[in-house]
Write a structure and sequence with these properties.
heterodimer; A: Arc Repressor Mutant, subunit A; 3 domains; 15 helices; B: alpha/beta; Amidase signature (AS) enzymes
């Protein structure tokens, strides 16, 4: 056990998925030819004015509700003033002291199934900046570049800033937190949350302190993490670096550090933090927002089942393990397919066996996702009914699934058409057993002399003779009776 | 009377009746501009070709049977309003060569109503000033005395209408920038309720105060222009989404049944005998028209100037940040991007703009924000409440529009004495109220050779534009001060 405890807070920026940008009618889409999704407003031409995108406000309220945040009745936009070439107005419309949502909590689970929670400081709405490209420096960095180009397609895209309390204590927890945030926002449909396209970006504030201490140590801000894996590695590395420093008697410098993916370490970016004075003040171009209780309740009523509730349903009610539950939650279509099968069949156990077993195997083999395969939840329900009614045995059931995957249609129809129904007729089974016993006199003798393990072989012969249709339980009973009589 | 000397209402009537055409009016206006604007300097850009094209369109629309309330009316557009394809400078070096790629809503609406844009009018840089002397791009002279300023910041629009270079001037008023030049140039200058006219396409000075309005030679013209340019615009979140009742049909000829408040704190004795006499007469004339005069108090109005000079600079310090040399306008290259910003803004902004950016940046700074910006907002609320109280006792308020007639160039040596020019107009701006200036008499300033016009300011409760313009019309028709003297101009056609 280390004598150090890590204290981590995470700050995320999430681009909201809306048709148009936050304050103008330009398309909110990733990519495209530079400076093609722009207008007087998002280029900050003289005289242009912002108009709030109502869909973004609703997305924010939904996110707030999903995280149990408070939705205050009043909210407003403020200007955050600073000069930057990819920020057209040289101020960012943001929210300072009256954000759309206040507080809240992100509940997440770890690989071992432990459920944790981390409170949110705030979630607020702002606008994204454009993107700069620096030329002439060789490495794309501004230092040494000869000129810079700015693409304003992204400028004005609605951006949700989500700041956590420093309540995360390991790299694993940090990733768990981020996964929960991503899952929830995806489930709400308010963002694509793609780190690779920059619709989810995060920084981590990392500090360490002796276990048992309640004081916060000096923190560093870790940036440039481009995947959950790099978040995990960067935080681990930063914690180790800080522990090594303190144990060597050095001190931590408050600074911004960039994650270097190649070398697997964080590197100091700016040690002297500029004391920015953003001169926040209410944006006089926008009127304060009133959020009515009716709006909040209308949106609350549209909330889907959230990831943690599904996790608990899958693990506690349906007995799925953590990995299976996570798989269903993170694969929205598979999860929804699974839920449909459960609802249609009322048989979560079979649903789990087939959807996560045979069907997932076939999906992997063929590259066709389960929900796009010809196997419908109705057909699966038919299959389950035949299995529980002993109409077919498990071997036939597996064969049937393969045929259904290949477009065979209703399993009932296949069984009827091809005479695959399980033979549970005692007379027919008795006939198969008699034939097998007659043909295997030596085995019969062996059994009777005490080598009872030949039973398996004899039952197998019956199944083979019946082309798998004989009811294995019935075969066993009849066989035993015959051998022991 | 030359066609261009007629009112906008008359011109529109004649063009609509096809006794003249928009093309003829436009040619006359352009010829007159060519003849006099070298002296007056109303325009930074004269839109000869554009005006002719628009006039032809107006004539075609009239011929097609459209009814255009402002058919063929020559329009001066203040150069802080965008008109697609035209240079739009805000009177600043930083935008000296910038061409607007879109049109301001208020301009679009006047063009839709039949106006013909003659030119883009000079102004104090970014609308900061009260004399037009802060324009970085040209000098505008008062048509009634070329040694005097036209007022500001909408000085070019005022001068153009006074000199018959346009019949409607579009102005913007942040603390008095329509009303003061109207008073100086013998015009009606009307600032509607904040939010009545869209600001979309108006280059912002102080967003919470800026309001577009007309400068015209008659009250009726202001009413017609306002009816055409006003109303809700979804492109401006601060524009008010409620129906605009037309004001032009409700112009009155008396003031019977109205209580007019005379502001105790705005006693005019200190302004000097001649000026005091003009206002005393004006109040007496209101009474003669049937109004009951009542004394009202605006005890916090004296803090208007201090309040305004915190809020407006604070907003401007942020609004003007975008002029950074990155995307448009002037760029002066530097060693790095910060150096480029500094050099560009140092070269592009004039001293008054820089002063206000600095004041505003300071007022918003951490540690000073509460003491300056927040306190100013509180004072603003108190000033607005004073008006509420006053309007419980009266229907309209009457007071001076400016404390003196137009002054001579370079006579306001320090910024504060210039700021004082807006002493009577700023409180209404802070309260968002509709207010106008209407000609109320003439005073020959000490040492001056010609009588100069004075303006009476009338102010109404929020959204009471009909009442305000109606009352101003009654006063104008009864007193006819505007026609007492002619501008010092040589008219085309030799007069």
């Amino acid at each position: 056990m280390s004598r150090w405890e890590a204290v981590i807070g995470i700050e995320c920026h999430v681009e909201l998925k809306t048709k148009s940008k936050m304050f103008c009618g330009c398309a909110n889409e990733f990519g495209g030819e530079p400076n093609t999704k722009v207008c007087p407003v998002c280029l900050a031409l003289p005289g242009a004015l912002p108009v709030v995108n109502k869909a973004a406000i609703e997305h924010m309220i939904l996110a707030g509700l999903a995280f149990d945040a408070e939705i205050p009745a009043f909210s407003k936009f403020d200007r955050k003033n600073y000069f930057y070439p990819d920020m057209p107005k040289d101020y960012q419309i943001s929210q300072f002291d009256m954000p759309l949502t206040q507080g809240g909590v992100v509940r997440y689970w770890l690989e071992d199934g432990t459920v944790k929670e981390c409170r949110l400081t705030r979630i607020h709405l702002e606008e994204d900046t454009g993107k700069s490209t620096h030329a002439g420096s060789g490495d794309g960095r501004i230092a040494g570049s000869t000129y810079s180009l700015v693409d304003f397609n992204r400028a004005g895209v609605p951006l949700m800033e989500c700041v956590s309390e420093p309540e995360i204590h390991s790299a694993q927890e940090a990733v768990g937190y981020l996964e929960a945030l991503r899952r929830t926002l995806l489930q709400l449909g308010v963002s694509d949350v793609k780190m690779e396209e920059g619709s989810l970006r995060c920084d981590a504030n990392v500090s360490i302190r002796p276990v048992g201490s309640s004081e916060l140590g000096t923190k560093t801000e870790v940036k440039n993490m481009n995947s959950f894996r790099s978040v995990h590695r960067a935080i681990e590395s930063e914690i180790e670096r800080q522990i090594a420093l303190l144990e060597a008697g050095d001190r931590i410098v408050q600074e911004t550090r960039g994650w270097d993916e190649v070398n697997g370490t964080t590197i100091s970016m700016r040690s002297k933090e500029q004391a920015h004075d953003y001169r926040y003040f209410p944006d006089p171009d926008l009127v304060p927002m009133e959020v009515s209780r009716e709006t909040v309740e209308r949106l609350r009523a549209t909330l889907p089942e959230l990831p943690l509730a599904r996790f608990e349903r899958y693990t506690r009610t349906f007995g799925l393990d953590v990995k299976q539950a996570t798989q269903l939650i993170d694969n929205a279509q598979l999860g929804s397919y699974f839920d449909t099968v459960v609802t249609a069949s009322g048989d979560p156990k079979q649903a789990k066996n087939f959807v996560l077993g045979e069907l997932s195997r076939l999906a992997n083999e063929t590259g066709t996702p389960v929900h796009e395969s010809p196997v419908t939840p109705e057909h699966l329900t038919e299959l389950f009914v035949m299995i529980t009614g002993n109409r077919i045995n498990s071997k036939i059931a597996k064969d049937l699934v393969v045929r259904m995957w290949g477009g065979g249609g209703s399993p009932k129809a296949i069984v009827e058409r091809e005479g695959l129904a399980q033979t549970s007729d005692p007379a027919a089974v008795e006939k198969f057993v008699d034939d097998v016993l007659a043909a295997n006199e030596k085995s019969v003798a062996d059994y009777r002399s005490g080598k009872t393990n030949v039973m398996g072989f004899l039952v197998g012969q019956v199944m083979k003779a019946s082309q798998g249709k004989a009811d294995p339980a019935l075969v066993n009973t009849v066989m035993k009776q015959k051998l022991e009589s | 009377m030359e066609i261009i000397e007629r009112s906008a209402a008359q011109i529109a009537r004649e063009v609509s009746a096809r006794t003249t055409s928009a093309a003829e009016v436009t040619e006359a206006a352009l010829a007159h501009v060519a003849a006099v604007d070298g002296e007056i300097g109303s325009y930074l850009t004269v839109l000869n070709d554009r005006a002719r094209d628009v006039a032809a369109t107006v004539d075609a629309r009239i011929a097609a049977g459209e009814r255009l309330p402002l058919a063929g009316v020559p329009l001066a557009v203040k150069d802080n309003m965008c008109l697609v394809g035209t240079r739009t400078t805000a009177g600043s070096k930083i935008l000296e060569h910038w061409k607007a790629p879109y049109t301001a809503t208020a301009v679009t609406r006047l063009l839709d109503a039949g106006c013909v844009p003659i030119g883009k009018a000079n102004m104090d840089e970014f609308a900061m000033g009260s004399s037009c002397e802060n324009s970085a791009l040209g000098v505008t002279r008062n048509p009634y005395d070329l040694t005097r300023v036209p007022g500001g910041s909408s000085g070019g629009s005022a001068a153009s209408v006074a000199a018959f270079e346009a019949a409607i001037g579009m102005g913007s008023d942040t603390g008095g920038s329509i009303r003061e030049p109207a008073a100086f140039c013998n015009l009606v200058g009307f600032k509607p309720t904040y939010g009545r006219v869209s600001r979309y396409g108006l280059i912002a000075f102080a967003s919470s105060l800026d309001q577009i309005g007309p400068l015209t030679r008659t009250v009726e013209d202001s009413a017609l222009a306002y009816d055409a340019m006003g109303g809700y615009d979804p492109m401006d979140s601060t524009s008010i989404d409620r129906p605009l009742e037309p004001t032009a049909p409700s112009l009155r000829t008396d003031l019977r049944g109205l209580k007019v408040g005379i502001v105790r704190e705005f006693a005019t004795g200190a302004l000097g005998g001649a000026i005091d006499a003009v206002y005393k007469q004006a109040y007496a004339d209101l009474k003669a028209l049937g109004a009951e005069l009542v004394e009202v108090a605006l005890p916090t109005a004296e803090h208007g100037l201090a309040t305004y000079y915190l809020i407006a600079p604070a907003e401007c310090s942020s609004n003007l940040a975008r002029f950074d040399g990155v995307r448009y306008g002037l760029r002066v290259d530097g060693a790095d991007v910060a150096d480029m910003y500094e050099k560009t803004r140092a070269a592009g902004f004039g001293p008054e703009v820089k002063r206000r950016i600095l004041i505003g940046t300071y007022a918003l700074s951490s540690g000073y924000y509460d003491a300056y910006y927040v306190r100013a907002q509180k004072a603003r609320t108190l000033i607005a409440r004073d008006f509420d109280t006053a309007f419980a006792a009266c229907d309209l308020i009457a007071c001076p529009a400016a404390s003196s007639p137009a002054f001579q160039f370079n006579s306001k040596s320090d910024p504060y004495s210039m700021y004082l020019m807006d002493y009577y107009t700023i409180p209404m701006s802070l309260a968002g109220l509709p207010a106008l200036s209407v000609p109320c008499g003439w005073v020959t300033p000490p040492g001056g050779e010609r009588p100069m016009p004075m303006g009476l300011q009338l102010c109404a409760p929020l959204f009471e534009e009909r009442l305000l313009l109606g009352a101003a019309h009654a006063y104008e028709q009864a007193t006819k001060h505007a026609g007492a003297h002619k501008p010092a101009l040589t008219m085309v056609g030799g007069r």
